[in-house]
Amino acid sequence: MSRRRRRRRKRRNPAGRLIALVLTLVVAGGAAAGGIWYYAEHSGNPLTEYADEKYNADLYRAEPFSETLCVSAENVALDGFTDEPSLHAAGLFNLNERSVEYGYRLYDKLYPASTTKLMTAYLALKYGKLEDMVTVTDSVTGFAADEVVCGLYPGGQVKLYDLLCGLLLKSGNDCGVAIAEYISGSVEAFAELMNEEAKELGATGTHFVNPHGLHEDDHYTTAYDLYLIFNACIQNDTFKEIISMSSYTMSIGDAAGNTHSLEVLPTNYYSLGKTEAPEGIKVFGGKTGTTDQAGCCVILYSEDMEAHPYISVIMGAEDKAFLYQEMNRLLEAEKALSE
Description:
Oligomer: single chain
Largest sheet: 5 strands, antiparallel
Mean pLDDT: 86
Low-confidence stretches: 1-28, 35-63
Strand content: 15-25%
Shape: globular
Order of helices and strands: HHEEHEEHHHHHEEHEEEH
Number of strands: 9
């Protein structure tokens, strides 16, 4: 009897192994199919991939942040608007619809020039206190004669709010250094923070070396990353207040305790009154940047006739006249979208 049972068990084992093998293949096949489906759904969009990996519950509590932004993985054509090949990049972002209405070389690696200062302002507003008095060090000196400064005095003190106005309106490089040292203790430590925070915003094609944007080979961004950073900035009312100003008078302290006044004017031609936006478009303000390597750049916050908000960016124009000519073409296209 025991021999027969042993023989029967031996006969059953091959069948059991075959069933186990079939089940294993079915499970593996299902897993593979699921993997293929997931890859098809999520690959090809760097922002979605980053959102899945780096979801930030503090900034985007209810949904991956890619769902709150204008997203495109490639260039986007706009009816009635032709590309200008001499530009480094350009983009038009519809904030209400969360759509890229126009995109030209959005992900090309580019030098940002003083549009870098948007990230500096973002961190100052996030980690600083506007009423704090910032002590200026010798680090604010040594800029070249053609590099913009607000004339800060080493050993003097300036309110953080005033530094932000000097940074965003006049584009003072010395204000950028003073803010960097106030927030992080040094320019180098602040650059590390800039890169960390840029990635948190999804700006994974960006690398910063300094807080002002004076040229460094390893200091770069993309037009799309610049949109992400600017979009984060305009969530702050103080930022929008400053970029909307037509002028501001800074109070700058020196080492002896004396106070000096400096009127700073915006560098973008719309706020300065040198260029008029197309009828029906209201430009609130923005940030410019110019170096030999970056060309002339500007990024703006505006609204159309229906008060729909947009961000527009142009990078790498050959001169200021051409920059604002092309920006007005882009704003005309913005206007046409609401008609």
